[in-house]
Design a protein that fits this description.
The structure is a single chain. Helix content is 32%, strand content 31%. The chain is built from nine helices and 24 strands. It has helices spanning 14-23, 53-64, 122-139, 144-149, 174-181, 186-199, 256-276, 336-352, 362-375, and strands at residues 2-5, 27-31, 33-36, 39-43, 65-66, 71-78, 81-91, 100-103, 106-108, 110-113, 116-119, 164-171, 210-211, 215-220, 228-233, 238-243, 245-248, 251-254, 283-291, 301-302, 305-306, 312-313, 321-329, 357-358. The chain is globular and about 65 Å long.
Length: 380
């Protein structure tokens, strides 16, 4: 469950090791360590060569491993030589096994055998598929009807909007979350409303919630161009949906800045609510983006922040998307780094469908938004 690499170069085959960890029990890869016979000898660091290491490692993983593994990256300067860095890559045990490693036209499934990686045999493959089947059967416990009902009505045409983005967070431990929110009591609903108010920066003054046996749905800004819809189920699943495109004099306008800010607010909302009901386990974060047509986006001021550089590489000038992504996330403890990591995981997967990846300024720009969002959270 521990491996050492001298550099982040893919020549060391470390993406294969990530696939191995995801298919086994998870593990850590430490970059910047000289090792002999699988034992660390010296902490030497590596030269980042002017490249943002987190982005480089993340892009390599997303291009080499399918499906997307759950991972976290931490980079620090080497004390003895500030021009060099050391990186730690934490890979979680995978749920949606098997994880395939691709190189060119070759696709392989690797597992751990002692300190070595080996290709999975028939029995090992059978086990990995069975593990995935069990995970998918647990997903069936999630109320799919919430996903279907979280569609915003177009306030102009009074029909369901065909341009929207939607987020849902589902606790991995559905049983525990269900016990904590069982019956959707008025106290639980009040806590959820308080969290909405805190996360979205305004007193919640929406219409009367729509209550059903297994869920409650709230609406804010009804009849407004920025109408939002929130959902809470008896199984602890949270949801949010909003228009993806606004009508302007130039036609339909889509802002990826709004998408980013709303996802940050939703993560803050979820973290705050799960704290109130004492749920600190892992979750599955799903994001759906439906934008059948959109105008080119222009950089400028957004919520008080001046955006003067590209957040994506290459620049994301137009969005054509009708897709969904899902990643496993941990919300606690709530830190800027953790929220940014969850945000980057989702946004990177979404923009890849449009031929782009996160740019070097993405982290710097979003850090200000995350800090602003978390500063409004009440102390636990």
């Amino acid at each position: 469950m521990l491996d050492y690499k001298a550099d982040v170069s893919p020549k060391d085959n470390w993406p294969e090791t990530v696939a191995v960890f995801a298919n086994s029990f998870g593990g850590l890869i430490i970059f910047g360590v000289k090792a002999e016979r699988d034992q660390p000898r010296r902490l030497v660091g590596f030269d980042p060569k002017g490249v943002e290491v987190k982005t480089r490692i993340g892009s390599m993983l997303l291009s080499r491993i399918q499906p997307r593994p759950d991972f976290r990256i931490r980079v620090v300067k080497l004390d003895s030589d500030p021009t060099k860095e050391v990186a730690i890559l934490r890979v979680a045990e995978g749920v949606y096994t098997p994880y395939l490693h691709s190189k060119g036209d070759e696709y392989r499934v690797y597992v751990r055998a002692g300190a070595q990686k080996v290709e999975a045999d028939y029995l090992q493959l059978s086990y990995l598929f069975e593990k995935r089947r069990r995970a998918e059967s647990q997903m069936a416990l999630s109320p799919d009807q919430l996903q279907k009902k979280l569609v915003v009505e177009d306030p102009v045409r009074h029909v369901e909007s065909d341009r929207f983005y939607r987020f849902t967070i589902t606790p991995d431990d559905a049983g525990a979350a269900r016990r904590l929110t069982s019956g959707l009591t008025s106290e639980i609903e009040r806590r959820f409303e308080d969290c909405i108010s805190t996360a979205y920066g305004a007193s919640f003054a929406g219409p009367t919630p729509v209550r059903e046996q297994s869920m409650t749905i709230y609406r804010q800004g009804t009849g407004d161009r920025k109408e939002q819809k929130f959902g809470l189920t008896a199984k602890g699943v949270l949801g949010f949906v909003m228009h993806a495109c606004l009508k302007t004099n130039d036609g339909l306008y889509f802002s990826h800045f709004n998408l980013i800010a709303d996802l940050i607010s939703f993560l803050t909302l979820a973290a705050g609510f799960y704290e109130t009901v004492r749920y600190y386990g892992n979750c599955r974060l799903s994001a759906t983006l439906v934008v059948p047509e959109a105008k080119e986006q222009k950089l400028g001021k957004f919520r008080g922040h001046l955006v003067t550089s590209d957040l994506f590489d290459p620049p994301l000038n137009i969005v054509r998307a009708n897709l969904g992504v899902e990643v496993r996330v941990a919300l606690h403890p709530v830190t800027v780094e953790r929220v940014q990591g969850n945000l980057a995981a989702v946004i990177n997967d979404l923009v890849r469908a449009n031929g782009s990846v996160l740019g070097p300024d993405f982290q710097r720009y979003t850090q200000a938004l995350v800090q602003e969002s978390l500063s409004s959270r009440p102390s636990s």
